[in-house]
């Protein structure tokens, strides 16, 4: 008859088999854990690589950059002195840029609401791009498309000094085309531009633009004393308007030297 101790004894072979089974489970678990961590590391590397490419993919996308927006709560800073009480008031739009720029835009329409003239006063901010061709924005203002080539069409004298005129390339000299104009000032950083289709002859259209600029007045300068100083000095050079049979205010000597594409 076997003793109780003999009945409960475990052979060394069974213990070894149990330990081997436990070791296999541990090794299998570690292998799965290593594979899991390796997969996470791989996904992390791929994710970082993708994030590193995002600036290159988005760098040239203009949709991500802040742009101009209408400032409905801003008050007009400029006005045109009226020639007579029956003159119609132009539409006035104010645009602001997050980087500090401001545009005051006056527009006039003719028959069937066709654009007749436009005047834009652009106070430059951090968004101003000195490398951008001036003709591109001027062509857009004239509703010609940014790719339309313009040529210089002379200079006119205004209270702000000489102002350059432009017209589409290929316009016949005898054909009264709409004229664009541009005047830049460095201090303060200010750009006055626009176009006019007023007048039946080229001299009349030049005179119309000169008259418009001479009538431009400053209502408020805000916190820009140099802007107020610019307009105060300009007022000393103001000329009257005589559109009926007005003289051609083109600077003849300078006009002969300004030809060719812009």
* Fraction of residues in helix: 25-40%
Counting DSSP H or I runs of 4 or more residues, the number of helices is 6
Shape: elongated
What is the subunit arrangement here? Answer: single chain
Q: Note the beta-strand portion.
A: 15-25%
**Main sheet?**
8 strands, antiparallel
Class based on secondary structure composition and strand pairing: alpha+beta
Low-confidence segments, given as residue ranges, are 244-262
Topology pattern, helix = H, strand = E? HHEEEEEHEEEEHEHH
Mean pLDDT equals 78
Number of strands: 10
Question: How would you describe this structure to a colleague?
Answer:
- It is a single chain.
- This protein is 34% helix and 24% strand.
- With 262 residues, it is of the alpha+beta class.
- The strands form two sheets. It has an eight-stranded antiparallel sheet with strand order 1-3-4-5-9-8-7-6, with helices on both faces. A two-stranded antiparallel ribbon has the order 2-10.
- A hairpin with a 4-residue loop joins β8 and β9.
- Mean pLDDT is 78; it is low at 244-262.
